[in-house]
Structure formats: structure tokens, C-alpha cells
Design brief:
Helix content: 40-55%
Pfam families: Rubis-subs-bind, SET
Oligomer: single chain
Region (Disordered): 1-20
Structural class: alpha+beta
Shape: globular
Number of helices: 20
Number of strands: 12
Largest sheet: 4 strands, mixed
Bound molecules: S-adenosylmethionine
Subcellular location: Cytoplasm
Strand content: 5-15%
GO cellular component, one term: cytoplasm
Organism: Bombyx mori (Silk moth)
Length: 494
């Protein structure tokens, strides 16, 4: 061996040593940060102190930023532009028996990709059929090398969506994956709150989705830390593979893929969480669920929810979900959402001298543990539970005693004229006036926190849209309450 090549080898050895030292150093720093995330999130779980949730979030986010700085953005660098893979994807779908005549994948402003009609479809006609073999299901995950980890991990045993996320990470890194053409057309990143900065999240105030977002972020940061620890300490072969790909960035990508694209299908008598290729390219619009799983033919079937003309985008209906859910779990807001509602936090204060009797009456109606009530986007925004709460909340001792003597005071949950008469205009006036004041206070809080002057990024416009929808519900509720109070019969002293 010549002197040159020996010195080259020595150089290689010392670079190898350096790299190893760097790697161990990185691992040590990450292990420290991961422990801190676990500790911080468990303190919060134990105290559940909502008033401190924002400070907690900022601390968690700071740790997560330190973690991602060390880990780097591995995943994004390895994923290429999804559009470049569409042709190969369509070929793979055809080869595996997916039927989608007269349909192509296209870009639509505000939706990213979607399905485009290349011919007219009439309402009820079959648009897509997707054989089960192209789907990625929790069953595939359980039958894969991940099974050894699932067998010892209680979280994976109970949460199929997380199992699917880890399985997706493995398949994303598997060059021979059967689903490679599908995975290559998945988005590189998502509009879920896991991609929001804290400045963007803060814009959600005073929406109830602000707290839900912090909770979701906290829970994903905790899951990341939990799995990081397991992946680096347990001796299971598949975890060696996960060590190479598991970072906060890749985990939020996998979790967001699951959140925005998962479907539940009924496979041999059991509900199974799954990715359904092509079906999951459909964007949402209002309508009816016209998608189903055909157990005889072992395939998913998607029927047109209305007529679609040539060149139009083909939509499906994701289900009756309020915008808060769509925002949090799907990363978008649907302005004309007929199933929208706004959650308001209401409860009997611990200082209320009538708390005990009010709570026992609420418990009789099954509302003892309810802390959030919905205002609905419809002509009468007040549901039976909220109606009962505001009535009970505003009763005096005498009224509470009277209503508590009934075994099931069902009139309290009803706005039918006979029930309203039984409850009496006096109680209803106080109840509706109380709610009116609450709604006006909430509206004032939205005005104070309006984000008019913020630079319009996709995240900011989603937040603005969500809050606009919430304000509309509140304004409609105020109008409804004012009208209800105005038309209540004049109170008769009993
Ligand atoms: C199942 S995927 C649909 C395909 C997706 N557009 C894509 O490019 O892969 C669901 C995602 O599509 C987007 N989306 C679906 N319906 C939408 C709508 N009505 N408005 C805006 N975005 C929508 C959201 O980003 C959502 O997370």
C-alpha cells in the first residue's frame, strides 16, 4: 500500500471518528431536549392549567425548535415536487385495477391538487372504484415488521392513526415500497396547525380553537418525545430503521398526512383506518356522503354527489363537521358550512351558593360533566343542552327546588311552546338575556382581537376565515336572542 493511500485511509478513519463523535453529541443533546418535552407536557397533563397553556406552549415550541435545528429538515430534502410524479402514479393506479375513466388530477387555486372531470358525470353515477390492495391500512401496518413494536407498545395498540403514521414513515423511506407511487404524490407539507408559528397560533384568540390547537400541538410534541425515546432505547429491529427517519419534522408530516387523508372503512366487520389512493385527492364541498366500501367486490366506490360538468372540479362530502374540526384536523375552513357551530365554555362557578342544586339538576339531564355548549349555524342556534343549561343557571332557589322534585324534568331541554309555558317566561327571559350578554361579550373580544392588518399568508387567511365564521354565528345568535326576548309573553308574577 502506498504512502498516499495509507494517509487517505487514516484521514477516512479520523473523519469517521469525528462523525461518530458528532453523532453521539447530537444524540445526547436530543435525548436531553426530549426528556424536557416529556417533563413539560406531563406537568401540563397533571395540572391542566388553561390560563398557563400559552406560556407552556411557548416553552414547548422553543424546545421543539431546538430539536428541529439539531435534526435538520431531512424529510423535505428527500421529497421532490409531487406534481412530477402524477403520471407514474396514474399508471400505477391503472395497473392495480383502480377505475377512474374521465377523470384527471389537476391543480385548483386554493385547493392544491384535486380531481377534474374530463366528461359530464350525472348525480349518483360511479366515478371511482379503488380495490383494497392499493389502500394502506392499519392492517398492513400490523402485518409488517412494525408488528414487533406494536406488540409492546400500548399507544400503538390503542391508536391506529398513530400506527398508520409510523408505517407511512417506514414506507416513505423504503425504495421498494409497493405504495411508492402513491407516497410520492403526497404533499410535502400541510396546512395543519402543526406547521403554524406561535405568532400565527396566537391570532386564533379568542376562538375556542386556540386552546384546542395548543392541546393538539402539545399532544403531538409529547408523542414525538415518547417515540423518540422508545426508538432509541428498545432493541427491536424495525426501530433501527425508524432511527434513520424519525424526526419531529417527519413525524408532524406523517401525522398531518393521516389527519388530513385518513378514512375509516368497514373491512370484514371491523372499522379500519386507511389511506385510499385517488379517493383522497377529492376536495370537500357540502352535500351527502356518496362514498362506500363494497365488501363483495373488495373495493371502495365513490359516486357523484351532484352533476359535474366537463372541466369542473369533482368534490366529495367529508361529513357534517363544524369549521373548528375542519380547521384543526383538515387544515381548511369551509365558509358556507351548514354544519358549522361555535363552542362556548359555560359552567356553574364554585362560588355560586346554589351550585349544588344546579349541578344535581344538570346531572339529572345528563349535563353534569358538560363544560362546552354549541351555538349552531341555523335558524334556532340554541340546542336542547344549552337551553337547559341557561335555564338552570338562571333559576332561583324556589325554582330550582320545584324543578328538582321531578324525576326527569324534560321540559327544560325543550323549546316547544308547551315546554316553554311550563318553564315560564320569567325564567326564559333571564336565561336568554344572560346568553345575550355572554354573546355580546364574546363579540367584543373578537373585535378586540381582529387580525385586519396582518400580512395575508395561507395560515393567516385560514385563521381570519375561521374567526369570520364564528363571528357570523355569534351575530346570528344575538339577533335570534333579541327577537326571542322581544316576543316572550310579559312575565306574570307567580
Ligand atoms: C384529502 S386531501 C384532498 C386533496 C388535496 N387537495 C391534495 O392536494 O392532496 C384534503 C386536503 O385538501 C384540502 N381541501 C379539501 N377540501 C377543501 C376545501 N373545500 N377548501 C380548501 N381546501 C380543501 C385541505 O388542505 C385538506 O387538508
Amino acid at each position: 500500500m502506498g504512502r498516499k493511500s495509507q494517509s487517505k485511509q487514516n484521514q477516512k478513519k479520523s473523519t469517521g471518528k469525528e462523525n461518530n463523535k458528532l453523532y453521539l453529541q447530537k444524540r445526547k443533546e436530543l435525548a436531553f431536549l426530549v426528556d424536557r418535552v416529556l417533563r413539560l407536557t406531563s406537568i401540563f397533563q397533571a395540572t391542566g392549567n388553561v390560563s398557563k397553556s400559552w406560556e407552556h406552549h411557548l416553552e414547548i415550541e422553543k424546545l421543539v425548535n431546538e430539536i428541529t435545528n439539531i435534526e435538520g429538515t431531512q424529510l423535505r430534502n428527500t421529497r421532490t415536487l409531487r406534481q412530477t410524479h402524477i403520471d407514474k402514479y396514474l399508471q400505477w393506479l391503472r395497473e392495480n385495477g383502480v377505475q377512474f375513466d374521465g377523470i384527471e388530477i389537476a391543480e385548483f387555486k386554493g385547493y392544491d391538487l384535486g380531481l377534474k372531470a374530463l366528461k359530464d358525470f350525472t348525480e349518483g353515477s360511479l366515478i371511482l372504484t379503488i380495490p383494497s390492495k392499493v389502500m394502506i391500512t392499519e392492517k398492513n401496518a400490523k402485518e409488517s415488521e412494525l408488528s414487533a413494536f406494536i406488540a409492546v407498545d400500548p399507544l400503538l395498540q390503542n391508536m391506529p392513526n398513530i400506527t398508520l403514521a409510523l408505517f407511512l414513515l417506514l414506507e416513505n423511506n423504503n425504495p421498494d415500497s409497493f405504495w411508492k407511487p402513491y407516497i410520492e404524490v403526497l404533499p410535502e407539507k400541510y396546512s395543519t396547525i402543526l406547521y403554524y408559528t406561535s405568532e400565527e397560533l396566537e391570532l386564533l384568540k379568542p376562538s375556542p380553537v386556540f386552546e384546542s390547537s395548543l392541546k393538539l400541538y402539545r399532544s403531538i410534541a409529547r408523542q414525538y418525545a415518547y417515540f423518540y425515546k422508545k426508538i432509541h432505547t428498545l432493541d427491536i429491529p424495525v426501530l433501527k430503521k425508524l432511527q434513520e427517519v424519525f424526526t419531529f419534522d417527519s413525524y408532524r408530516w406523517a401525522v398531518s398526512t393521516v389527519m388530513t387523508r385518513q378514512n375509516n372503512i368497514r373491512l370484514s366487520e371491523a372499522d379500519v383506518t386507511a389511506f385510499i389512493p385517488l379517493w383522497d385527492m377529492c376536495n370537500h364541498e357540502h352535500g351527502e356522503i356518496r362514498t362506500d366500501y363494497n365488501n363483495e367486490l373488495n373495493r371502495g366506490e365513490c359516486y357523484a354527489l351532484r352533476d359535474f360538468k366537463t372541466d369542473e372540479q369533482i368534490f366529495i362530502f367529508y361529513g357534517a363537521r363544524p369549521n373548528a374540526d375542519l380547521f384543526l384536523h383538515n387544515g381548511f375552513v369551509y365558509p358556507n358550512n351548514q354544519h358549522d357551530s361555535l363552542s362556548v365554555t359555560l359552567g356553574i362557578s364554585s362560588g355560586d351558593p346554589l351550585r349544588e342544586i344546579k349541578m344535581s339538576l344538570l346531572t339529572k339531564l345528563g349535563l353534569g360533566c358538560v363544560t362546552h355548549y354549541s351555538l349552531f349555524k341555523r335558524q334556532n342556534p340554541i340546542g336542547p343542552e344549552l337551553l337547559a343549561f341557561i335555564r338552570i343557571f338562571n333559576m332561583n332557589q324556589e325554582e330550582l327546588t320545584k324543578w328538582s322534585s321531578q324525576s326527569l324534568p324534560s321540559d327544560l331541554v325543550s323549546s316547544e311552546p308547551s315546554s316553554a309555558e311550563a318553564v315560564g317566561a320569567d325564567i326564559d327571559r333571564r336565561a336568554h338575556t344572560y346568553l345575550l350578554t355572554r354573546c355580546k361579550l364574546l363579540l367584543a373580544a373578537y373585535k378586540k382581537n381582529d387580525n385586519e392588518n396582518r400580512t395575508e399568508t395561507d395560515h393567516v387567511s385560514n385563521v381570519k376565515l375561521l374567526k369570520q365564521c364564528e363571528v357570523q354565528i355569534l351575530e346570528a345568535t344575538v339577533t335570534y336572542l333579541e327577537e326571542t326576548i322581544r316576543t316572550l309573553p310579559t312575565a306574570v308574577k307567580q
